[in-house]
Amino acid sequence: MTLMAGIVLAGGMPAEAAERHAAPCPASGRVTQDFGPAPSGFHYGLDIANAAGSPIKAGLAGKVSSSGSSGALGQFIVVTHSDATKTVYGHLRKRSVGVGTAVNGSTKIGEMGATGTSDGRARLHLEVIDGERVNPRLKYNCPR
């Protein structure tokens, strides 16, 4: 789903205002799937593709609250931020930080990969949880 100027996002903030206040995107690359309806059901994250091994940064300060492997996400990291929101980073090739590690926005937390349920192309699956899963663009200024 592509956001258009004037659309109001969760929290009552217009899309363009949310992006002005958003942190840098945790990864560089091309968005291959946005938050929203998808053929296989609702997609609760933002998928950003780039070369395998591309660095993934925290984007925002926080503390690593979970790190491991799951079937769908593959290798993943969860960072909890000071406002209690959480960012989930999935499909990682490598995790560079462990549980309890304090990170700032520029901390490299891992590398882009294709682990978990994947079509084999490297990407970052980025989710934001603020009581419920919300559009990551509310927190991060990622490419269109």
Can you give a write-up of this model?
- The structure is a single chain.
- This protein has 144 residues and is mainly beta.
- The protein has one domain (26-133): Distorted Sandwich (Glucose Permease (Domain IIA)), CATH 2.70.70.10.
- Helix content is 4%, strand content 44%.
- The protein contains one helix and 14 strands.
- The protein has one helix at residues 15-20, and strands spanning 23-24, 30-33, 36-38, 41-43, 46-49, 55-57, 62-70, 74-80, 86-95, 102-103, 108-112, 123-129, 133-134, 140-141.
- The strands form three sheets. Strands 2, 5, 6, 7, 8, 9, 10, 11, 12 and 13 form a ten-stranded antiparallel β-sheet that branches. A two-stranded parallel sheet has the order 1-14.
- The longest helix has 6 residues, at 15-20.
- The radius of gyration is 14 Å and the shape is globular.
Topology:
Layout: H1 15-20, E1 23-24, E2 30-33, E3 36-38, E4 41-43, E5 46-49, E6 55-57, E7 62-70, E8 74-80, E9 86-95, E10 102-103, E11 108-112, E12 123-129, E13 133-134, E14 140-141
Parallel strand pairs: 1-14
Antiparallel strand pairs: 2-5, 3-4, 5-12, 6-11, 7-8, 7-10, 8-9, 9-11, 9-12, 12-13
How would you summarize what this structure contains?
The protein is mostly beta strands. The protein has one helix at 15-20; strands at 23-24, 30-33, 36-38, 41-43, 46-49, 55-57, 62-70, 74-80, 86-95, 102-103, 108-112, 123-129, 133-134, 140-141.
Could you list some keywords that capture this structure?
144 residues; Glucose Permease (Domain IIA); ten-stranded antiparallel beta sheet; globular; disordered N terminus
